[in-house]
Amino acid sequence: MPESNIGFYGHVKQYHNLKAEIDQAILDVLESGSYVLGPQLVKFEEELARYMKTKETVGVNSGTDALLLVFLALGLGPGDEVITTSNTFFATAEAIWLAGATPVFVDSDPRTRNIDASKIEAAITPKTRAIVPVHLYGLTADMPAVARIAKANNLFVVEDCAQGIGARGDRFAIGELSDAVCLSFIIQKNLGCFGDGGAVATNHKGLAAEIRKLRNHGSMKRSHHSIGYNSRLDDIHAAVLRVKLKRVDEWSERRREIARLYDQGLANTPMTLPFTPPGYEHVYHLYVVDSDGRDGLQAYLQSKGITALTHYPIAIHQQEGFPWGRPARVGSLPVTEESAASVLSLPMYPELTNEEVGRVIEEVMNWTASREALSRQAV
Ligand SMILES: *Cc1c(COP(=O)(O)O)cnc(C)c1O
């Protein structure tokens, strides 16, 4: 019997595992007649705040809008500079541009791939207003260092936690050392609804109130205080997320288990494996290896029915869609640029079986062995 393909995402399997509970939650919303800013959203926001250990959370339409609305609520706009990384999904910088501010890119740390905190201070100017670290691949950025720099220079800190829900640092939590945390619930994230969704978690009640207003046309109690956006998290999505939130920690544990299998199975290859600093709890949104033969490995795996993807093959500052008409400041980014050429994300989701993980390891090893044989012939 031919072996079945190993895809990159597990969300359909996840749905099947939770089908009865999810179907019921959705049907209850349909019968309730409350679809927008209804009771499911209120309950989800409370439960998410408890989970994040922040005073409040506000559900919005997407992770991108979570970032944009935080930037606007903090008063960032034209002339303001925001320091971030180019080694991330496009939306991190996009939201800075959409707010009218200027992204300033600093390089990533060669081991963690997160923003290199030792490069931040050199990028600060009198126009700098905020730092946006990204918890890339599910590994928390060096928040104590970022927070120290922010405090010394009177800057806001906004965590892009689209990939990092449930992660922890060494004796610090996400949300503890920043002004706001931005989450994404697009289906492929570690906590995903059936479409787009996002949230802001914060300990600043004033900031939360401002975002509540901005997500709903600048409106409070039927009068409009400012222009705003239409960016609410629908009750159907909130109801689904309530079912899934209860499982996030268990799923993160399974992701770490799979990562250990990969770590052990691939220890003797020339590839670079993911690094976790001591005391950190990675949630492996992605399991990313580096290989100088990345494209060949990816094609080989695909020929064996295994889908591996690249995050991200083109750094933001090298994207065709980089809006050169808008201001941006790009430092020297060698680590980011090298990563883009070598990164490969292996299948990583809680529904993967150990047998499937074993097959991925076996095929990576087969490719490595045939490549080594070829290079011996060439000598
Ligand atoms: C997914 C993602 C976003 C955007 O979230 P959406 O919900 O898709 O808008 C922002 N930043 C990072 C790092 C992401 O991975």
Helix content: 25-40%
Share of β-strand residues: 5-15%
What coarse outline follows from CA principal-axis ratios?
globular
Main-sheet strand order equals 1-7-6-5-4-2-3-11
Q: Order of SSEs, N→C?
A: HHEHEHEEHEEEHEEHHEHEHEH
Number of contiguous helices: 11
Question: Regarding CATH, which class of the largest domain?
Answer: Alpha Beta
Structural class by sheet pairing and helices: alpha/beta
Largest sheet: 8 strands, mixed
Average of per-residue pLDDT values: 96
Q: What is the CATH superfamily classification of the largest domain?
A: Type I PLP-dependent aspartate aminotransferase-like (Major domain)
The structural domain count equals: 2
Radius of gyration: 21 Å
CATH topology of the largest domain: Aspartate Aminotransferase, domain 2
Strand tally: 12
Distance between the termini: 39 Å
Spans of at least 5 consecutive residues with low confidence: none
Examine the secondary-structure arrangement and name the CATH architecture of the largest domain.
3-Layer(aba) Sandwich
Structural summary, described in words:
This protein is α/β, with parallel strands linked by helices and 379 residues long. The chain folds into two domains: 225 residues, 3-Layer(aba) Sandwich (Aspartate Aminotransferase, domain 2); 131 residues, Aspartate Aminotransferase, domain 1 (Alpha-Beta Complex). The chain is 39% helix and 13% strand. The strands form three sheets. It has an eight-stranded mixed sheet, with helices on both faces. A two-stranded antiparallel ribbon has the order 8-9. Helix 5 links the parallel strand 4 and strand 5. Helix 2 packs parallel to helix 7. The longest helix is centred in the C-terminal third of the chain and has 25 residues. It starts with 10 loop residues before the first helix and ends with a helix. Pyridoxal-5'-phosphate binds next to helix 3 and helix 4. The site of pyridoxal-5'-phosphate (PLP) has 15 residues, from helix 3 and helix 4.
